[in-house]
Known about the structure:
- This is DUF4089 domain-containing protein.
- This protein has a domain at 7-47.
- By secondary structure, the chain is mainly α.
- Helices cover 51% and strands 0% of the residues.
- 2% of the residues are buried.
Amino acid sequence: MSETHDDPARAFVTALARDIGVTIPESCLPGVLVNRDLLRQYADLVNGFALPDTCEPAFDYQP
């Protein structure tokens, strides 16, 4: 496991999985922790994007 994944993060993920009735095999836990970190980075990007109160909602999406 990488050095960025400390015991508290590991314990948190394990406890959360147990709380919702999911078993994470020990061999999968490093990948789960990496994905948790990646999702946290994405959430930080979204939360860090300031939208003014005057921004109009997009009612129709057209790619």
